[in-house]
User: Fold this.
Amino acid sequence: TESAPHNLIASNDVVDQIGDSLQSLAMGLFVFLVIFNVVTYLIKKYLDDVVLPQKVKSEILEMEQEDPETWARLQARLNEGETIEDRPDLVDELVERLKW
Assistant:
């Protein structure tokens, strides 16, 4: 009968260790998800703020030279003082053109 309390103490230690392991696992998963979301946000921001505008500008230059009709049509839709970059609808047309 002396071994019964000893076994109970040992099993409590095992339960505590399992609980600590699960807590550590949950914390690690949480940290991973936070870091993953931050990195994803930064990549998206970089693509939206740097890569896409550069691609749009290069596409505009290419369109001016290779497709003057489309360029003239887009220019005609601009208000005074506007550029294509100022008009999301025209940028969308350029992006659609990139897909082809």
In short: The chain has a mean pLDDT of 83. The two ends are 81 Å apart (CA to CA). Residues 3-66 form the longest helix (64 residues). The chain has three helices and no strands.
